[in-house]
Amino acid sequence: MTAEPILLLDRITKRFGAITANEDVTVSLAQGEVLALLGENGAGKTTLMNILFGHYVPDSGSVRVAGRALRLGVPRDAIDAGVGMVHQHFTLAPNLTVLENVMTGTERLSAWRSGAAAARSRLAKLAERFGLVVDPDARVSDLSVGQQQRVEILKALYNNARILILDEPTAVLTRGEAERLFDTLRGMAGQGLSIIFISHKLHEVMAGADRVIVLRGGRVSAERRTADTNQAELAELMVGRRVQRPVRAARPVGEVLIEARAADVPMPGGVPLRAVDFTLRAAEVLGIIGVSGNGQTTLAHLLSGLARPKAGQVSILGRDAAGLDARAMVGLGVGRIPEDRNTEGAVGDFPLWQNAVLERLGDPRFARRGLVRRGAARAFCADVARRFDLRGGGPETQTRRLSGGNMQKLILGRNLADAPRVLIAAQPTRGLDEGAIAAVHAALLAAAEAGTGVVLISEDLDEVIALADRAQAIVGGRLSPPVEADRLDATRLGLMMAGSWEGLADAV
Amino acid sequence: MRFERRERAPAVLVVLAPVVAVVVALILAGGLIALSGAPVFEAYGRIAIGAFGSKLAITETLTRATPLILTGLAAAVAFRAQVWNIGAEGQLYAGALAVAWFGAANPLGLPPGLLIPALMAAGAVAGMILLVVPVALRLRFGVDEVVTTLLGNFIVLLFVSLAVEGFLKDPMAFGWPQSVPIVPEASLPRIVDRSRLHLGLVIAAGLAVAVFFINRVTVFGMQSRAAGLNPAAARFAGVPISGTLIRVACLSGGLAGLAGAVEVLGVKGFVTTDLSPGFGYSGIIVAMLAALNPLGVVAAALFVAAMFVGADGMSRTMGVPSFIADVTVSLSLLTMLVALFFTTYRVRR
Amino acid sequence: MTEMIDLLFTVGLWSSALRIATPLIFGTLGALLCERAGVLNLGIEGIMTFGAMAGWLAVWGGADLWTGMAVAALTGAVFGALHAGLTVSLGLSQHVTGLGITLLASSLSYYIFRLAVAVQGTPPTVEPFAPLAIPGLSDLPVIGPALFTQTAPTYLAIGFAGVLAYGLFRTPLGLAIRMTGENPHAAEAQGLNPIRIRYGAVMAGSALMAMGGAFLTLAAFNSFFPTMVQGRGWVCIALVVFSTWRPGRALFGALLFAFFDAYQLRLQTVFGSAVPYQLFLMLPYVLSIVALVAMSRRARVPQALMKPYRRGER
Q: CB of B323 within 8 A of CB of C109?
């Protein structure tokens, strides 16, 4: 079929200040095809799709849908042309109902009344046709993440999308939900829809797409039919060199540092922990694997001093966690890497040296009698920058100017510089490119080698398999029994993440 | 037209921002002066003369600037921590009332060196209480302190009216109700003879320097700024948010209360319901013009005071309503916001 | 004690409650509309003041009363455009911008008034709106004169409450406004323009606020004097929270509040000099704070309220 492609992105270039996000990128999509856009974080995939959908205006290049040029920078035009987007961070209003979210913007604003009844029945028909059932009167905040994604997809279909873009669609889904999603997508393609999905997960791309375009550093690095390639080739095309992520080596473990028995931890607005048991020993990496939204944040907050257990026993370095706040934790020698480095990890407008010591103001090295000891703090910051290869500025540089990878190095470094006894690392490589990921992994392993007990909370299977000495899955606020490294593989972890824990207890 | 965040705010722009803001405000206000039929440049000239043209003018401007420095500091301290203290007007009056209440007599026979600081402390505490309550309501119930402090202003003003007509009433004053005057030894000494300029100016300037050092050098300074810029990161770092914000409230409310105390101790000697021509609200403008910098507050307070004092004189001779000062100063708040915006963002076509 | 209860049955109490409520209804609805789109408009106190002055000045200059109201609404929309320009286009702090506009609009209104009207002993007056008796209904005992013999703007205010209630929840435009206030990125992703929607909502809301101010000078009283708004704008902001951003409840809240205010005024005559009148005058403000505290926990705030919307910046 050499018909005209249903979509053509032609020589798109987009710069943000000094950064070139897309350089001369050309992508075509045939009707009924499933195309994957593959690339590591920062490769320019989301920017490209945002240009297609009209969120951004490119510096040069054009977009043609079914042969007609699209007016750029106007989402309304993209929607009218049949382009629908399922965003990575859902564009939904939690306080409104499903029907309201779907209906927004679909009727003329000058109309005197909303055709809610007609909309409701149309939505129901669409939902049934594609197998995406959801209660139209449910408030979005009451829906699960998987259901919210269904609403996102329905919104696009309701707008008569014939090209569907999905940005990292499985980031928040379990393995089973992800498989169901791809079945749905394949079904849609069979019904004439054309689909692009963005991913950085190789197995997903291989299983779900007909064709894959690899982006690297803002340019198209390669194009392959998935039938003609394999994961290893794609990995190399994605990163450009054989990047070897460090892998754990066996080492003897030391004394118990953290012990939790039947602990309940409440979390208003989040997922509470119920009856969790885990143990962390010195020189050990304990991996906690789970799909986002299952209580990881609560667990990270518990171990960071931001949440207290309401029942059960949690002892950290010999002290009862119920009596420890963040300042006390740091003082005891607990290093903490927060989930979101921008909102929790650093104050963007502070100079680097202030972010280096903000959580250490209880330490007489950095503050005495209520006064900050600037010289010592600056020296500490310079030391961290040197030891962890921080690029992008010196102690007086404003922190927001740092790249994601460098900010993460600052956060890691300020904790590791003092040889902590415990390190809590929550999603430490989220949003980082391959080089930064390798650096973070190396630092975590080095810490374990030096005797630190590391709790690694992660959504990334490969990361946990590579680094963890033992792993437990977190599902719905509960922890599975631990499994030793030599029994860890993707299949077992996948099952654990889905809640199948029978027979695990004897696998220790 | 799109806006793009700059990588760093150029130092030149940051320093020039208040100057540009004031000039633009003066130009816009000039249009309003023209509307009244008066010649614009002459009007501005008279404002300048009215503010600085004689020894009396200068001392009047400085006297007027004194409470503005204090309310400006109050706003700057609070806003830096994202505590929206719009209640400086009420806190000022609370401080004034406290001083009037305790200063009407000196039963312990304290010398001025002890009495005056004690009274100022009372004024500061009164102001503190008035801000701590709204901030506590915010911490506990999530109630926006903007509205509670604003409503508080009206409540306090009514209470002042109640007091000067009731339990604080000076039986010897004719006409407008006022409080019993403070004892003579509680008065702040004059620092320039035959003028109203009093020691309060020195105290205010000294406090500006003190706040500057608190911000720059103390743990509290760093923590309160963190709490204002990024509460989530501050909480993660173990900064005690509630405690820090309460202390910010104490400092800010205390400074505003001091403004009232200093006005009573230094200028009037008693309290009336028109003690403050909006010092509390002007303090917000002073703080923004200074970009929340304590040392800049002194300069900004001088500008605002000069506008008001100068416009009074100009209005009498030229028939331009003296409200032009309020208009110009309010305009400069808005122009300053825009100027500050352009130090962080650049325009891209 | 019996006098306190007797007061409840006087026509005067209910009649004046509705009169006191009218500027509050206008102001609260206006602020509600702005906030539903995601913008906190603290310029309300100044916009009401300027509306009061502008409406009065137009009528004093020869226009009829409705033209005066329209002029006031127009000035409100202009200040609304200024507010939107600063907070929506530039993304400046909604708190500080609003305060700046309040200070600017107030001082500007005093300046222009002073230019137009020389200082004199008693300020000049205009002929205000006369009470409009609704045929039939106004003959009902007690509630007739109280509820159905109000000035036209009062009926207009109540009408607006209905319009807003219907508009926000049953029309596409209303849904678009609500979506903009909950998640402007979602609105944009559905092809809407959140910037234009916010501008429109803020301008329309500010026009309503200004009309509330004009009611003070064209119906409740008949002259303009500085500080006549007396914090009503801030009370409206509190009432928006109390109403959980629903126009029907806003109407109810304004009426409830006005009832207490009217009651408090009459209580002063009952208690005479036994209780200082200032305590009664404080009641409205204290009540507002109490209302805020009571509702703060439960309210479902529009999620994007006070968050500036910048395209492409997530």
A: no
Residue A382 resides in a domain:
no
B276: in domain: yes
Burial class (CB in 10 A: 0-12, 13-18, 19+), C143: middle
Residues A461 and A339 in one domain: yes
CB contacts, 8 Å: A109 with chain C? 172-173, 176
User: What distance separates the 2 farthest-apart alpha carbons in chain B?
Assistant: 71
- What phi and psi values does residue A296 have, to the nearest 5 degrees? -60, -40
Paired residues of A455 in beta bridges: A286, A424
Domain encompassing residue A453: 256-348+418-507
Alpha-carbon gap, residue C20 to C146, rounded angstroms: 13
Cα B144 to Cα A300: distance, rounded to the nearest angstrom? 30
What's the pLDDT at A259?
Answer: 93
* Dist. CA C286–CA C296, nearest whole Å: 15
Is the residue at A57 inside a domain? yes
Contact (CB<8Å) B217/A371: yes
Residues A224 and A234: their CA atoms lie apart, in Å, by: 9
Q: Are A477 and A290 in contact (CB under 8 A)?
A: no
Domain assignment present for residue A488? The answer is yes
**Chain B residues near residue C107 by CB distance under 8 angstroms:** 323, 326-327, 329-330
For residue A483, the one-letter residue type is V
> B interface toward A at CB cutoff 8 Å?
4, 7-8, 217-223, 225-226, 229-230, 232-240
Rounded to whole angstroms, the Cα distance separating C230 from C232 reads 6
Task: Take residue B166 and report the two structure tokens written for it.
Answer: 């009731």
Q: Residue A499: inside a domain, yes or no?
A: yes
Q: How many Cβ atoms are within 10 Å of B42's Cβ, its own excluded?
A: 13
Sign of CA dihedral B199, B204, B209, B214: positive
Which helix (H) or strand (E) element contains residue A406?
Answer: helix A404-416
In single-letter form, the type of residue at position C314 comes to R
Q: Concatenated DSSP letters for A235-258? A: HHHHHSS-PPPP--------SEEE
Kindly state whether residues A77 and A189 are assigned to the same domain: yes
Which candidate from A92, A106, A109 shows the least CB-CB separation from C173?
Answer: A109
Angstrom distance (rounded) from CA B32 to CA B21: 17
Domain of residue B221, residue span? 67-294
Give the residues across from B235 on adjacent strands: none
Tally of domains in chain B: 1
Q: What does the buried/exposed string (b/e) look like for A130-144 if buried means 16 or more CB atoms within 10 Å of the residue's CB?
A: bebebebeebbeebe
| pLDDT tens per residue across span A48-59 | 999 999 988 999
User: Do residues A436 and A500 share a domain?
Assistant: yes
What are the tokens at C157?
A: 């205010």
Q: Are residues A72 and A125 in the same domain?
A: yes
The interface predicted TM-score of the complex, written ipTM, equals: 0.92
pTM comes to 0.91
Residues A125, A127, A131, A135: is their CA dihedral positive or negative? negative
Would you call A191 exposed, middle or buried from its count of C-beta atoms within 10 A (0-12, 13-18, 19+)?
exposed
A390-to-A414, B158, B289 alpha-carbon distances in Å: 11, 59, 37
Q: How many residues does chain C have?
A: 314
- Contact status, residue A175 vs residue A117, Cβ threshold 8 Å: no
Is the Cβ of C312 closer than 8 Å to some Cβ of chain A?
Answer: yes
Query: What confidence tens digit (pLDDT) does each residue in C227-251 have?
Result: 899 999 999 999 998 899 999 999 9
d(CA C186, CA C201): 18
Grouping H, G, I as helix, E, B as strand and the rest as coil, residue A273 is strand
pLDDT in tens, C158-187: 999 999 999 999 999 999 999 999 999 999
Question: With contacts defined as CB-CB under 8 Å, which chain C residues touch A94?
Answer: 182-183, 303
Compare CB distances from C107 to B151, B284, B323 and report the shortest one's residue: B323
Nearest CA distance, A216 vs chain B (angstrom): 25
Nearest Cβ partner for B226 among A329, A358, A367? A358
What is the rounded CA–CA span in Å between residue C190 and residue C260?
45
Name the H helices within A209-275.
Answer: 231-239
